[in-house]
Design brief:
Layout: H1 2-46, H2 49-59, H3 61-78, H4 84-128, E1 132-133, E2 136-137, H5 139-142
Antiparallel strand pairs: 1-2
Protein name: DUF3618 domain-containing protein
Length: 148
């Protein structure tokens, strides 16, 4: 019976020890949660850009005003209209280019059609092996047509 009593005491000691460990783990967990929450809020505050800009404008309003005036002046100079002389030169160039394209279009079309025709004739001849003339299949060259 003494052995059974010792076992019971040992069980109670282990249960008590487990309870102490659980309590210490719970305390450590609560402490970590508090630390994480405080660091999270500090980081959130640090990364709040709109709030920082608002504070900067309120604290240094004269510097922001001078900066805004300077950037507005620069943008005004950059956005000026060009002189009429340059615009007239552009119009003349565009009219000349349009006229040049309109006049060269028939020549370009004829060149492209002839090049495409020669390419397709060469492809056809290489596939069929038959002699092909300028206007299609050349019967005379093939020797199939006799002259009377």
């Amino acid at each position: 019976m003494a052995a059974g009593n010792e076992i019971e005491q040992r069980k109670l000691a282990l249960v008590q020890q487990m309870e102490e460990h659980r309590n210490s783990i719970t305390g450590a967990k609560l402490l970590l949660n508090d630390q994480i929450t405080s660091r999270k809020s500090a980081l959130k505050e640090k990364l709040n850009v709109p709030k920082k800009i608002k504070q900067s404008i309120q604290e240094k309003s004269t510097k922001w005003l001078i900066g805004a005036l300077a950037s507005g002046t620069v943008m005004a100079f950059l956005g000026r209209r060009r002189s009429k002389r340059k615009q007239e030169n552009k119009k003349k160039k565009s009219i000349f280019l349009t006229l040049l394209i309109a006049l060269s279009r028939p020549f370009i079309k004829k060149y492209l059609v002839n090049t495409l025709r020669q390419y397709s004739m060469a492809k056809l001849q290489s596939k069929t092996g038959l002699p092909i003339g300028r206007r299609g299949y050349d019967y005379q060259q093939a020797g199939q047509v006799e002259h009377y």
